[in-house]
C-alpha cells in the first residue's frame, strides 16, 4: 500500500507540474505513521524550495553531504517552524533527524519522531511548507501500523487536515469533535432555530410536542445522511430558499389553524427533509473524516438532537407556564411570534433568492 500511495502522488505531480525552468517540482511529501506510543513523520522537500528559503546558490550544492550537514540546523529550524503536528489537541515536540540526501529526486528527507502516551485518536497537521510559492502543495499520506489509510493535499488555501484513527480512541475523538459542533449549529443557526420555535408556539401536550420533534428528527436525519454519503445532494441555492419558505409556512399555519386539525407533525416531517440538506451543507464545510464517516454523522446528528432538546424544553416550558397563568397573554404571544416567524422567513427567502452571496 505504501508504494501504491506514492505512485498516486507521482501521477498527480506529473499532471500538475509546471515547466522545469520555473520550478522543477512544486511539491513536498509528508508521510505520517501512527503507532502505539509514537507518531513518526517522513518529510521530503525539494532542494529548489529549501535553497530558495535559506538563500543558497547554486541549489545543487545541497546535494553535497558537507554542505547539507553544514546547513542542517538552519534547514531543520526553518521546516520545523512551518510544520505543526498535534495529537488529541496537544501540539507535539519531537527530534528531527539530520537530512538524508535523495539525489535521484533532488530532495532532502527528514525524519521526526514524536513520543506519545498511546495511539492518538485524532492527529492534526498544519503546514504551509514554502509560503513564497503560492501554488506549492504538500502531499500527506497517513499510515496506521504501516497501512495507508488517508491521503490529502495541503496548500496555501487548505493548510490544515484532521485525521481520526480507526481505534476506540479515534471514535471518542470523533464524538468529542462533532457532538459539540451539532449542538452549536442548532443553537446559532437562526433559521433552524426559528423553524423549531414556530412549531412550538401553539403549545400542546407533551405527547403532541414529542411527536412533532420526533418527526423533524427522523426526516432531517435521513436527508443529512444521504447528502453526507453523496447519495443525494441538492444545490444550496435551492435548499436555502426552501428552508426560508418552510419558516414562512410554519408561521402561516399557526395563524390559520384556528383550532382545526393539528398538522405540525406532518409539517415537521415534510420540511425536516429539506432542513437535513441544510445541515449537510454545514458538514461539507467541516470535511467529514472518510475513515470515520459513520461515527462523525452519528455524533453530529446527536449534537443536533441535544441542541433541539434544549430549545424545545426551554421554549415549551416557558409557553406552558405563560398559558397556565394568562391564556390571553399566551394567545397574543403566539400570534405576535407567528408574525415574526413569517417576517423573518420572508426576509431570508428574498435574501437567498436575489442576494445569494455565499450560497454554493
Task: Describe what you observe in this structure.
The radius of gyration is 27 Å and the shape is elongated. The chain folds into two domains: 164 residues, no CATH class; 186 residues. A hairpin with a 4-residue loop joins strand 6 and strand 7. Strands 1, 2, 5, 6, 7, 9 and 10 form a seven-stranded mixed beta sheet that branches. Strands 4-3-8-11 form a four-stranded antiparallel beta sheet. The protein is of the alpha+beta class and 360 residues long. It contains eleven helices and eleven strands. 55% of the residues lie in helices and 18% in strands. About 2% of the residues have low confidence.
Task: Write a brief structural summary.
The chain is an alpha+beta fold and 360 residues long. The chain has helices at residues 2-16, 47-54, 65-70, 72-80, 168-188, 190-200, 206-228, 236-257, 264-285, 293-325, 327-354, and strands spanning 27-35, 38-46, 83-87, 90-91, 95-96, 100-102, 107-115, 122-127, 137-144, 147-154, 160-164.
Amino acid at each position: 500500500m505504501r508504494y501504491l500511495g506514492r505512485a498516486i502522488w507521482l501521477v498527480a505531480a506529473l499532471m500538475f507540474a509546471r515547466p522545469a525552468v520555473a520550478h522543477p517540482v512544486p511539491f513536498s511529501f509528508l508521510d505520517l505513521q501512527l503507532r502505539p506510543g509514537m507518531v513518526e513523520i517522513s518529510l521530503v522537500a525539494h532542494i529548489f524550495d529549501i535553497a530558495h528559503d535559506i538563500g543558497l546558490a547554486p541549489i545543487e550544492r545541497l546535494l553535497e553531504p558537507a554542505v547539507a550537514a553544514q546547513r542542517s540546523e538552519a534547514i531543520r529550524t526553518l521546516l520545523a517552524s512551518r510544520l505543526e503536528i498535534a495529537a488529541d489537541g496537544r501540539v507535539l515536540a519531537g527530534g528531527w533527524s539530520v537530512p538524508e540526501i535523495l539525489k535521484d529526486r533532488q530532495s532532502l528527507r527528514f525524519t521526526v519522531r514524536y513520543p506519545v502516551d498511546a495511539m492518538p485518536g485524532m492527529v492534526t497537521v498544519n503546514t504551509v511548507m514554502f509560503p513564497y510559492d503560492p501554488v506549492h502543495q504538500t502531499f500527506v499520506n497517513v499510515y496506521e501500523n504501516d497501512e495507508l489509510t488517508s491521503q490529502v493535499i495541503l496548500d496555501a488555501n487548505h493548510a490544515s487536515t484532521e485525521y481520526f484513527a480507526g481505534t476506540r480512541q479515534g471514535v471518542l475523538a470523533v464524538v468529542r469533535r462533532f457532538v459539540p459542533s451539532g449542538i452549536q449549529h442548532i443553537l446559532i443557526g437562526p433559521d433552524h432555530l426559528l423553524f423549531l420555535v414556530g412549531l412550538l408556539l401553539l403549545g400542546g401536550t407533551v405527547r403532541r410536542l414529542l411527536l412533532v420533534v420526533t418527526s423533524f428528527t427522523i426526516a432531517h436525519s435521513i436527508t443529512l445522511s444521504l447528502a453526507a454519503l453523496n447519495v443525494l445532494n441538492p444545490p444550496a441555492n435551492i435548499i436555502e430558499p426552501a428552508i426560508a419558505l418552510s419558516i414562512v409556512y410554519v408561521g402561516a399555519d399557526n395563524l390559520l389553524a384556528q383550532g382545526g386539525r393539528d398538522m405540525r407533525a406532518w409539517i415537521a416531517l415534510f420540511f425536516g427533509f429539506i432542513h437535513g440538506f441544510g445541515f449537510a451543507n454545514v458538514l461539507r464545510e467541516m470535511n467529514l473524516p472518510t475513515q470515520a464517516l459513520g461515527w462523525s454523522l452519528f455524533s453530529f446528528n446527536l449534537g443536533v438532537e441535544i441542541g433541539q432538546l434544549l430549545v424545545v424544553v426551554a421554549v415549551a416550558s416557558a409557553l406552558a407556564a405563560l398559558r397556565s397563568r394568562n391564556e390571553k397573554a399566551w394567545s397574543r404571544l403566539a400570534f405576535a411570534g407567528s408574525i415574526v416567524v413569517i417576517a423573518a422567513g420572508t426576509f431570508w427567502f428574498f435574501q437567498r433568492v436575489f442576494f445569494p452571496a455565499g450560497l454554493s
